[in-house]
Amino acid sequence: MNTVNLTWTDYTGGVGNETSHYVVYTHSGTELLREYDSTDNTTIVARNLTDVRFTLNGDLVTVTLTSTPERESHSTVTRTYVIEMRAREE
């Protein structure tokens, strides 16, 4: 998949003052966009991407980014990041 939706609740305000958040990462053209809590709050977080992949396996989110600059098609770079989601406090 080349889009990922994440939601979480911020409990730092204490009981009764929880705040819900969401973020959506989307690969659009050659850009990676991040929408945070509002469609009016969208930011370009990466450019010159030719492929973006998100996978979820248990509590692990794997993000693979591939970039091939237009003027240097022979220099493709791929980076993979593995993020472990925080444990929930019950």
Walk me through the structure.
With 90 residues, this protein is an all-beta fold. The protein has one domain. Helix content is 0%, strand content 60%. The protein has no helices and 7 strands. It has strands at residues 3-10, 19-28, 31-36, 42-46, 49-57, 60-67, 77-84. The strands form 2 sheets. The protein has a 4-stranded antiparallel beta sheet with strand order 1-2-3-4, with no helix packed on it. Strand 1 and strand 2 form a beta hairpin. The model has no long low-confidence stretch (mean pLDDT 87).
Radius of gyration: 16 Å
- The beta-strand count equals 7
How far do the termini sit from each other?
30 Å
Specify the helix fraction band: under 10%
Side-by-side strand order of the widest sheet: 1-2-3-4
Shape: elongated
Average pLDDT reading: 87
Kindly give the count of domains: 1
What keyword list fits this structure?
single chain, three-stranded antiparallel beta sheet, mainly beta, four-stranded antiparallel beta sheet, elongated, 0% helix, 90 residues
Helix and strand arrangement:
Elements: E1 3-10, E2 19-28, E3 31-36, E4 42-46, E5 49-57, E6 60-67, E7 77-84
Antiparallel strand pairs: 1-2, 2-3, 3-4, 5-6, 6-7
